[in-house]
Amino acid sequence: MATTHEAQIMEVKQLSDGMVAFRARCCEDSSTDSWHTVNTVRSAASGLQALVEVDYDAEVSGHLARVSSQHEATLAGMQALQKHLSPAPQSPAPVHQAGV
Predict the structure, then answer these.
(1) What pLDDT was estimated at residue 32?
(2) 49-85, pLDDT tens digit by residue?
(3) CB 32 within 8 Å of CB 9
(4) Cα–Cα distance between 5 and 22 in angstroms, integer?
(5) CA 20 to mean position of chain CA atoms
């Protein structure tokens, strides 16, 4: 049965340079945490800064899809590699010596 990978936003931060960042996580697995920064300010040639119109829905959905896809691919790769692991060496049974 295939597992459905679903990433969610875990945290949002306003950065000092005017950007916004959010942290996504897939399947409640912290090893999948991924930050994405959204540039909300653009420097003009005059040196002035202007607000950028941002499609937040597209930014969020795109990043969540990338995190989910990466997690799914990583798990599939790990499963494929597990098949090639050599079995763990068996320890020889202890030899019991009489009178010792």
Answers:
(1) 97
(2) 667 788 899 999 999 999 999 999 999 999 999 888 8
(3) no
(4) 19
(5) 18
Contact between residue 21 and residue 37 where contact means Cβ atoms under 8 Å apart: yes
The reported pLDDT for the residue numbered 100 is 56
Listed in sequence order, the residues at least 6 apart from 32 whose beta carbon sits closer than 8 Å to its beta carbon are 7, 24, 25, 26, 67, 70, 71
Which residues are within 8 A (CB) of 64 and not within 5 positions of it... i.e. 6 or more apart? 7, 8, 9, 24
Q: Give the global pTM.
A: 0.72
Q: Please, are residues 33 and 71 in contact by the beta-carbon 8 Å criterion?
A: no
Q: CA 66, CA 7: separation in Å to the nearest integer? A: 9
